[in-house]
Design goal:
Number of strands: 0
Low-confidence stretches: 38-45
Mean pLDDT: 87
Distance between the termini: 68 Å
Shape: elongated
Radius of gyration: 21 Å
Oligomer: single chain
Helix content: over 70%
Order of helices and strands: HHHHHHHHHHHH
Number of helices: 12
Structural class: mainly alpha
């Protein structure tokens, strides 16, 4: 695999060499397994989360995509196909294992740029594995697709989970928006009562 990566230039070879052996192994095993695709759901949500591997694979994916976009004539057609296959495999591994808001946004932007709507749907499904605070972070994204997916995911959370976010000074407004969606779009009576109570509190504060 190292020789293959070196064929694509020095920057990629450098990024690859900086990966830990365990992280390189994730990509190598995925490349040898024809069953993995960017739309593959998470096989085991109980697998320990490795934030460092997230960061390493994210940097690798960025380098792969940048190299794939490079119009260098020295990169022949076969190498171009292989490079895109490696990049797609790296993205699939990240989709399967990542619980990072930054990585999720990277994958959504990549899929949207490729107009790969099946992958976007799979990424939306994967949001169920994220912590509510991570999804709130995504709901503040400048990217309209990322923001829409995360807002929809939050509206699917149990109302009690959203109520628990109301005390968070950072996430409270996002939680209120999700509760309003539950009340208006999904007809949740519990959410409607909470939204009305919050509106009443705001009115009382304005009167002071």
């Amino acid at each position: 695999m190292s020789l293959m990566i070196e064929d694509f230039g020095g920057r990629l070879a450098s990024v690859w060499s900086e990966l830990r052996p365990t992280t390189r192994g994730l990509v190598e095993r995925a490349l040898q397994s024809p069953g993995i695709t960017p739309a593959t759901p998470r096989a085991n949500s109980n697998t320990p989360y490795d934030a460092r591997a997230d960061n390493e694979l994210s940097r690798l994916l960025t380098a792969l995509d940048e190299r794939a976009l490079d119009a260098n004539p020295l990169l022949d057609a076969d190498k171009g196909v292989e490079l895109r296959r490696i990049a797609d495999t790296c993205a699939a591994v990240l989709q399967e294992k990542s619980r990072s808001a930054d990585v999720f946004a990277q994958l959504v932007r990549r899929a949207d740029k490729q107009r790969d709507y099946k992958r976007i749907d799979a990424l939306a499904d994967a949001l169920t594995q994220f912590a509510p605070s991570e999804i709130c972070e995504l709901a503040r994204s400048q990217d309209v697709v990322v923001r829409a997916l995360s807002s929809e995911a939050l509206a699917q959370f149990p109302t009690q989970v959203l109520i628990g976010l109301l005390s968070d000074p950072v996430d409270s407004e996002i939680a209120r928006d999700a509760l309003r969606r539950q009340a208006v779009d999904y007809g949740s009576e519990e959410a409607r009562q909470i939204v009305n109570a919050l509106n009443q509190i705001n009115m009382n504060q304005d009167d002071l």
